[in-house]
Amino acid sequence: MTLRRRFHGWLALAAMLAAPAWAEPPPNMRHSPLNVPALHGTLNLSLENAIEMGLENNLDIQVERYAPFIAAQVEREAWGAYDPDWFGNFSYGKDKSFVTSQLSASGGAINELETTRGDTGFRGMIPWLGATYETKLDTGEGETNLTFQSLSPQYQSIVSIEGRVPLLKNLIWNEPWTRVKTTRVGAEASNESFRTEVMDTVQRIADGYWNLIAAHDQVRVAEKSLETAVALLSQTKTQHEVGVVSKVEVVEAEAGVAAREFDLIVAENRYRNAQDLLFDLVLGPHLAADSTLEIEPTDRPEDYVKYEIDAELATERAFESRPELVVANKEIERSEINLKFAKNQRLPQVDFVGSYNYAGVSGQDSPVAGTPSPNPDLVGDYGHSYNNFFSSSGPNTFTVGAAVSFPIGNTAARSRASQAQIELRRSLTRKRRLEQSIILEVRKAVRDLKSAQEGIEAAERRTVAASEQLRAEEIRLEYGESTPFDVLLRDRDRVDAESQEIVAFQTYRTSATGLDRAQGTILRSHNIEIDQVRQLR
Question: How far is CA 534 from CA 102, 188, 197, 321, 434, in A?
Fold first, then answer.
């Protein structure tokens, strides 16, 4: 949409609604139509302005706006499986037991061991690969009265790194990574579903716009017909007073007026309903129970250009532009991901496991031991136990191995793989069915538009002929060669012809919009940028 059209559209609306109508309500009053002030007057609105305002205010669009953001958070949640976990444990213990060893006989009949331990670290999973890791610092302090224990209290610290890497089952196609992939596809599909809703809303706004014009024109035709019937009644009454016609003909004229009054009431009611429908599409929650605002369309359906339509080219455009096909492709992609995961789960569980750790010890010479520590380098406070970490002189341990498991029969995994295969075939079939439906939609839209263009010409000719017949019948009535009943019949024919012409133009406009929607080009035709529409209001 051009900046100029946008400015004029919003300027017209701002002038009509004034500042209080558009002021943001308090947080606890938002989204409540009951708190919107009544709107009055007339709002001149072009189709482009109506579409732009509808994309800003339409509540159906607003509801669908949340879906892509929710889908993005679901994808982000899936990535949360790779957030590392911090853990920590702490314990204190005291153990008293009888001494039965000759080595500690001088220590007394009761062995007392008091320990304080704690560990902390991180564990988690590596994206894509499916490997798990854990790194931990384990520390402890022990104090004993055993005579052969040269360090008491004794401090111990261990730094360990452990890892597990799947080699077959869960390699790449593990559950967390599969969820990341499928939620990403879901987020992309959600964006396309939102584009579908925007297209449908634009079509509804356009159809509502032309429907309002047609309803207003039908009121005009009904008013014109009533004026003709009232004039005829007046003329017939005058003729009856001078004895030219009978009372029966006056009654016929009066019946004609009553019938046209009824037609006008029906037409005006349809017009009011069309007003409310377009108001709801364009201005959303700003419709109040006592609103009297009238939308006055500034575009006319008669200003049209004939289309040269190529059904084959229109179908090609639809296959390139329809978001429903993108969603179908995303569903196929999701099914393929699930199939890869299901096939992987049929494999045996063969994991590489490994660990590596450094251990450090320090402490104070035991007061009950007969001799001091044989290694003076170990004597020190708690921090001294870290001195040899990650050095060539420090004690360390490493282990490597494999863990193997495989369920006998593996019935569940094989069944899930078969199910995933069937789901993929169903997704492919759904896409093919959708393509067939699009072809049918395009073919119908092309026929409808061609028929509408031809119908306009036929309806215009009928209106001209019906108007001429009515004029001739009125002349015959003046010369006493006709009756009011005949004139009313000719007027009814003229009303039907004009109504048919109105419907023909409306059908042409809705058919053009329908073809645009069937081709998937309706947003491009109205210069709508989907990224701008997607932003939350």
Answer: 82, 13, 11, 18, 25
| Continuous H helices in 23-46 | none
* Complete DSSP assignment for 65-90: HHHHHHHHHHHHHHHGGGSPEEEEEE
The model's pLDDT over 373-405, given as tens digits with 9 standing for 90+, comes to: 666 666 667 666 666 666 666 677 889 999 999
Alpha carbon distance 441, 448 (integer Å): 10
- Return the sign of the alpha-carbon dihedral for residues 441, 447, 449, 452: negative
Q: Which residue, 346, 385, 383, is CA-closest to 362?
A: 385
Beta bridge partner(s), residue 3: none
Give me the amino acid identity at 82.
Y
Residue 237, number of CB atoms within 10 A of its CB: 14
What is the token pair recorded at 453?
């263009």
Helix orientation angle between 484-519 and 247-283, rounded to the nearest 10 degrees? 20
Domain ranges of the chain: 38-75+180-334+423-534, 87-125+131-169+350-405
- From CA 36, how far away is CA 385, in angstroms rounded? 72
Q: Report how many helices (DSSP H) and strands (DSSP E) the chain contains, helices first.
A: 11, 8
- Give me the DSSP letters along 252-290: HHHHHHHHHHHHHHHHHHHHHHHHHHHHHHHHGGG--TT
226-277 pLDDT, tens per residue? Answer: 998 998 888 888 888 888 778 888 898 899 999 999 999 999 999 999 999 9
Tokens (6 digits) for 118:
């704690």
pTM value is 0.80
Would you state the CATH architecture of domain 38-75+180-334+423-534?
Up-down Bundle (1.20)
Query: Are the beta carbons of 82 and 127 closer than 8 angstroms?
Result: yes
Q: How far apart are CA 287 and CA 297, in angstroms?
A: 18
